[in-house]
Amino acid sequence: MISLRCIGRSVPRQISGAIPRLPRRTLSTIQKSSLLQQPWRGASRPSYLAFSTSQQVREQEGQVDPELSAKLESELSVERDTRDADTLPSQLQGFLDNSPFKLEDKAGQEEVALTRKFGDESIRITFSIADLNNMDQDDADQLGEDPALSDEEAADAAATNVQSGGGNTKGSINQGRTKGGNFAVAPEDSIAPSDRADGSYEDTSAGEAEQEPSFPARLNVLITKAGKGALQLEVTAQDGEVLIENVYYFKKPELADAKTAELDWSRRNLYTGPPFGNLDEDLQILLERYLSERGIDTALALFVPEYIDWKEQREYITWLSNVKTFVDT
């Protein structure tokens, strides 16, 4: 779940005003003494700047430090009251307890890894809390969109009969199923529960609250086999869905995670495969099933964004505490 703090943090700050440039001071020209000057005029005595040796330089102390420390303490109090950052939420802990993946998470670092063995394969999935911190304003606005606006958009779409997979023409309300399996239903066709013939009633108020959309979390999936190279997949996990973006194959597994300039240069000259969307549809489906069999499925897609949100909260609290300690000492 995305906190308002994360959304507000994406708004750029503007610096108003400008520092005026001081005019450059020009040096006055020195006039040469003339031989026609009167002999009785005495030579001018040079003047020297007077320095006071009695004035002691006092040690500077920041005047804003106490105010900054108090603000940091206030922010710490708010964040700690919002969530317990020391205890892993039960739904996240439940996933780890029932999952074949092992979690690798070091405090103070952005990247998190999940590892497991699958037959003769070694699987490593990495993701980062930077995906949450680097959300731009457009992404933040989209996630924080007012539900009422969505309802208005849905009503407009129903009024114009915009249907996926081939829609009915305007005016043919409830005249049949479209190719995509959808009905064109006008808002006025909604029947009140009391007016239904079977007397059925669907209580939506007592149901579960609508779940806020999660942000797209990028996963780097690396599957290696000894002596057979590596398969690397760029995946996006959002709202319980696993979306494959790209699939690469490397004969040398170290090229999948090129950490040196030489390896990175070698990787650039390799043909690693076409864009995933250009593959045959049946091949795309089989690759998705290939990942699902290895545990990269809906449960994982729900776990990763929630874990990123929790870890970012914990790291932020630690950062606030460290900054406050620095300011106070």
Description of the molecule:
With 329 residues, the chain is of the alpha+beta class. It has a domain of 131 residues: Mitochondrial Matrix Protein, Chain A (Roll), CATH 3.10.280. Helix content is 33%, strand content 15%. It has nine helices and six strands, in the order αααβββαααβββααα. The chain has a six-stranded antiparallel beta sheet with strand order 1-2-3-4-5-6. Helix 2 runs antiparallel to helix 9. The longest helix is centred in the C-terminal third of the chain and has 31 residues. The protein is elongated. About 23% of the residues have low confidence.
Q: Keywords, please?
A:
329 residues; elongated; 9 helices; Mitochondrial Matrix Protein, Chain A; 15% strand; six-stranded antiparallel β-sheet; alpha+beta
Name the helicity range: 25-40%
- Second-tier CATH architecture of one domain: Roll
Tell me the series of helices and strands, N- to C-terminal.
HHHEEEHHHEEEHHH
Q: Characterize the main sheet.
A: 6 strands, antiparallel
- Total strands: 6
Distance, first to last CA: 35 Å
What kind of assembly state do the chains in view correspond to?
A: single chain
Q: What is the CATH T-level topology of one domain? A: Mitochondrial Matrix Protein, Chain A
Strand order of the largest sheet: 1-2-3-4-5-6
Number of continuous helical runs: 9
